[in-house]
Automatic annotation (TrEMBL):
Domain Protein kinase per the UniProt entry, residue ranges: 25-74
One Pfam entry name: PK_Tyr_Ser-Thr
Source organism, top-level taxon: Eukaryota
Protein name stated in the entry: Receptor tyrosine-protein kinase erbB-4
Keywords: ATP-binding, Kinase, Nucleotide-binding, Receptor, Transferase
Residues reported in the UniProt entry to bind ATP: 58
Gene Ontology MF term list: ATP binding; protein kinase activity
Length: 74
């Protein structure tokens, strides 16, 4: 089950979060970049399904350290 986006400042229900496989994601074009990495417009095709779901894909910079990774996930 996929949960809709939550309003800013509201923590997502982690019981409903789904870990996606990299092979299920396709990057379409760059939307922008910032301190943590680059954001792409993408498509998610869940394994075993034919539905194509538009998503934003954020790729962290290789130089991003552990502290920044924690900040990103919060």
């Amino acid at each position: 089950m996929v949960e809709p986006l939550t309003p800013s400042g509201t923590a997502p229900n982690q019981a409903q979060l789904r870990i996606l496989k990299e092979t299920e994601l396709k990057r379409v074009k760059v939307l922008g970049s910032g301190a943590f990495g680059t954001v792409y417009k993408g498509i998610w095709v869940p394994e075993g399904e034919t539905v194509k779901i538009p998503v934003a894909i954020k790729i962290l910079n290789e130089t991003t350290g552990p502290k920044a990774n924690v900040e990103f996930m919060d």
